[in-house]
Specification:
With 414 residues, the protein is an all-alpha fold. Helices cover 79% and strands 0% of the residues. The mean pLDDT is 82.
Length: 414
C-alpha cells in the first residue's frame, strides 16, 4: 500500500491534465440538449444520410475553435473585449448582442432537454427547471473557475451513454455506408435540417466561451500545444456523440416509422428502451440528456456573463466573489431565469430546438467574420493567421457560413 502512495505522476502528464479543460468543456456543451434533439430528428427523418456532414464538421469545428485558443492565449483578452479593442464599442455591442440572442436560444434548448427528462419520470417541467436552476446557480456562485470546470466535465461525460447505446442498437453497416454517399441538397427539408446541424455544431457562444475560459484559467502561449490537443479531442468527442444519436434513432425509430419527424423528447428516449428495457433505457437517456443540458447551461450562462463584463468593464471572473462582481453573477442568473420563463410558454419543444440551431446558422457570418479578422489582425506575428493556412481557413469558414445561411433560408422559405 505504501508503494502505491509513492507513485509519482510524470510532470508532463500533470501539466497536460492541468491545462486541458476549456476545449473539452465547450465541446461537451456543444452537444447540448438542442443538438441532441436536432441529431435525433435528423436520424428519424433522414436515417444515416447526414453522418457525412457530421464527419466533415469535425475539422471545421477544430479550425474555428483553434483560432479562439490562439486569441485567448496570446492576447489574454476575452472575445468581446478583443473586438472592442480593435473594432470599437459599436461592433463589440453588435457582436455581443448576437451572442446574447444565441445564449438565450441555447438556454431554452437546455431547459427543453431537462423538462423532457423530468416528464419521463412524471415530474412537472416547472419543478425540474427550478431544481436545475438552483443547482446551476449554486455551482457557479460557490466555486472558482477550476472547480466549475471539473464539475462541468464530470456532468458532461454522462453524454457518452449515447455512444454505448449506438452500438447496442446494432445499426446496419451497409446502410450507414450507403448514407455516406447520399447528399440530396435539392431537397429543402434536408437543407433545413442540414442548416440546423451546422448551427448545432458551430455555435457563436462556443467561440466566446473558450477564449474567456482560457483567460480566466490563467493560461498563456506556453500552453498552446496542449490547448490545441484539448480542442481536437473535444471536437472528435462531440461529433462522435452527435453521430451516435443519429445512428441510434435511425436504427430504431427510423426503422419503424421512416421519415416521420419527432414531436416530443419522450419519443427520443423510446429509441433506447428496446435494447435496455424501459427503466434502464429511460435512466440512460436521462443521464445523457442531463449531462448535455447542465454542462451547456453552465457554459452558455457563463459566456453571456463574461461577454457582458468584457465590453462594459465590469468585473467578470469566477475568481471574484458575488459581492465583488455583482453584475457578472446577475447576468449569469438572469440568463437561466429568462430561459426558464420562455420554456414554460408551451410551444412545440422539438421544433423549437431545431429552429434555435437554424438561427445559430443564420448568425454565423457575424461571429466567424470577427473571428477571422481578429486572427489576422490582433495576434502577435508568431501566432498570426497568415500565408496558405490563412487562405485555407478563410475558405473553409466562408463555405461553411455560406452553406449554413443558404440552407437555412432555403429550408425556411420552401
Amino acid at each position: 500500500m505504501r508503494k502505491m502512495h509513492n507513485i509519482k505522476i510524470p510532470f508532463k502528464v500533470k501539466l497536460f491534465l492541468s491545462v486541458i479543460g476549456p476545449g473539452i468543456v465547450v465541446m461537451l456543451a456543444d452537444t447540448d440538449a438542442s443538438s441532441i434533439i436536432t441529431a435525433a430528428q435528423t436520424g428519424a427523418v433522414w436515417a444515416y444520410k447526414m453522418i457525412l456532414l457530421q464527419i466533415i464538421l469535425i475539422p471545421i469545428l477544430y479550425i474555428a475553435q483553434e483560432l479562439t485558443v490562439r486569441l485567448g492565449l496570446a492576447t489574454k483578452m476575452g472575445h468581446g473585449e478583443l473586438i472592442k479593442h480593435h473594432f470599437g464599442k459599436f461592433w463589440a455591442w453588435v457582436s455581443v448582442s448576437t451572442l446574447m440572442i444565441t445564449c438565450i436560444g441555447a438556454i431554452i434548448g437546455q431547459f427543453i432537454g431537462l423538462a423532457g427528462v423530468g416528464l419521463l419520470f412524471g415530474i412537472p417541467s416547472w419543478i425540474t427547471m427550478i431544481i436545475a436552476s438552483i443547482f446551476l446557480m449554486v455551482v457557479v456562485l460557490t466555486g472558482s473557475y477550476r472547480s466549475v470546470e471539473r464539475c462541468a466535465i464530470l456532468i458532461g461525460l454522462f453524454e457518452l451513454v449515447f455512444v454505448v447505446v449506438a452500438f447496442l442498437a446494432h445499426p446496419s453497416i451497409k446502410e450507414i455506408m450507403h448514407g455516406l454517399t447520399y447528399f440530396p441538397i435539392h431537397n429543402s427539408s434536408y437543407l433545413y435540417l442540414a442548416a440546423a446541424n451546422i448551427g448545432a455544431v458551430i455555435m457563436p457562444w462556443m467561440i466566446f466561451y473558450q477564449q474567456s475560459a482560457i483567460v480566466d484559467k490563467g493560461l498563456d502561449t506556453k500552453h498552446i500545444k496542449i490547448s490545441r490537443w484539448d480542442t481536437a479531442i473535444g471536437a472528435v468527442v462531440t461529433q462522435a456523440i452527435m453521430i451516435a444519436v443519429i445512428v441510434t434513432i435511425a436504427a430504431t425509430i427510423g426503422k419503424t416509422n421512416p421519415g416521420v419527424p419527432l414531436n416530443t423528447v419522450h419519443q427520443i428516449s423510446e429509441a433506447i428502451t428496446p435494447y435496455l428495457g424501459t427503466t434502464i433505457g429511460h435512466l440512460c437517456f436521462a443521464l445523457g440528456m442531463i449531462g448535455a443540458s447542465l454542462v451547456a447551461a453552465i457554459v452558455v450562462s457563463l459566456t453571456a456573463a463574461w461577454a457582458f463584463g468584457e465590453i462594459t468593464g465590469f468585473k467578470h471572473s469566477l475568481e471574484h466573489k458575488p459581492k465583488d462582481a455583482p453584475w457578472f453573477y446577475i447576468i449569469y442568473c438572469a440568463t437561466l431565469i429568462f430561459g426558464f420563463v420562455l420554456v414554460e410558454s408551451g410551444i412545440n419543444l422539438v421544433d423549437l430546438s431545431v429552429a434555435i440551431n437554424v438561427m445559430n446558422a443564420l448568425l454565423l457570418p457575424i461571429v466567424l467574420v470577427f473571428l477571422y479578422l481578429l486572427a489576422v489582425k490582433a495576434l502577435p506575428d508568431k501566432y498570426r493567421l497568415r500565408g496558405i493556412y490563412a487562405w485555407i481557413v478563410g475558405t473553409v469558414l466562408f463555405i461553411t457560413t455560406g452553406f449554413g445561411v443558404v440552407a437555412a433560408i432555403t429550408g425556411i422559405l420552401w
